[in-house]
Fold this protein.
Amino acid sequence: MAGSLKKLVKAESCRLMQEKLESWSKDYEINSCDQNLNQCCELIEMTSMIQGQLFTILNETSQDGGHYAGVETIKTRLLPWLGTWFSHATSGRLFETSLSLNQDSIEKERQLRQTFQLQELQEELTSTRLELDHVQQDLAQTQLALEDTKTKSATTLLTAADEIIQLRAALKASRAREEDSLRRLDHLNDCEQQIEMLRDELSILDAQKSVLQSRIARSRSPSPRRMRSRSPSPLPLRSCSPGRARSTNASRHAFLVARFGDIYSKDRFDAERILRMYINDMEVVQRIIYTAAVESFQAAKMAYRQFKMRVRKTLSIGHSGPESLEDTVMDYIVRHEDLYDVQASVNEVIRSMSINPKISSTPEFDFAVISSFIRELCRVAFSMQTLTPPLDIAFGMDGELFSETKYHRSVDSDFTAALVAYHVWPALMENDVVIVKGEAVTKRGALWSHRSRSRSRNRSRSVSPLLSHLSRSRSPSPRRSGSPSRALR
């Protein structure tokens, strides 16, 4: 008996039934009829289980007391309760009948709900199938568009690959031509240096010869008056201050660099406005100005070499003093830069531009309309040769690789292109170091457009600028009334 009672206590069925009763009491108004009936049936089942366990304990307790123990309690309490329960058996059947009817109605309602839910599910299934059909159609269209895009992308990639291959080939060819041109220029520079050295040696020999001849003449004629009459009247050597070129090199350098920038920012636009009155193509105008700058530097450098050789030849005859002959020559040139025949250089620049195949497409046009611009460039370029070290412009070629250290891109450039279509302004260099950047125009396909333009021009005018420069360097310069040679004499 004690074991069954302990099991009943551990099960805590009464406490659980109490909790369920309290929960049912709270949710009774919220629950539906089916939920309330289910709660009641669950409590009845729990009550029957507890009653079964209590009857088991009652049986065990009565057996522990013997045959007649507990009889009075059973008679007075258990039997009256059992009689009352059986008297309500009929009402229980009526309850069962009503319960069965309620279950039938609940079952019908459940079937109706299931039918309604099934219809809703079918409708949802139909709409879902329609949406699936639309999605499949969209997917098919997207696949077609994707295939089209893949085809176009493949074509574009092939075209880009062909263009890259052509660009690489063109780049290799341009590099080879540039290296060849640089080798030729180096060779020409070496030849010019050798020629200049030979000319210097010849001038020295001529000076020595003239000195010897004057000594022989003085030894043959004892008359002092005759010696004074035959003594040469050299250049006034003391007319220039010693060391002027070295002492003013820094200030002249700063001034010339600033003046070069002013020509680029001011005089160049004035020249453009003049050229635009005759030429509508802005590219041709910019090419003319760039060519004028390049040819002006070339002509000024050639004139400077000739001027320097004449000054050295003249001063070497009676040179004496603590300074070297080279310093004396440089001081004289710096002090007498006004003896530079700039008009001869301007004429040489205009002649070179008129035979340049890149800008001479209009034979009736005269480049003398920008002679003032060329004159200023020649003056600045000549003065830059008197610096130590001298300043020069960078070598530029159409179709070369664009260098960020040398040039700025023009506003109408293609900033993704790697090749230079044409140059607008040269870069200023000092010992192969850029001190003032130039300007260039970069475009895609610049190499092919440059080739097509060069082929379309007259072949009779396709004279190499390098050969023309060589011919100019070998041809003697005309002597004018204001030339340095006449001034020195």
Observations:
- The radius of gyration is 57 Å.
- The chain has a mean pLDDT of 78.
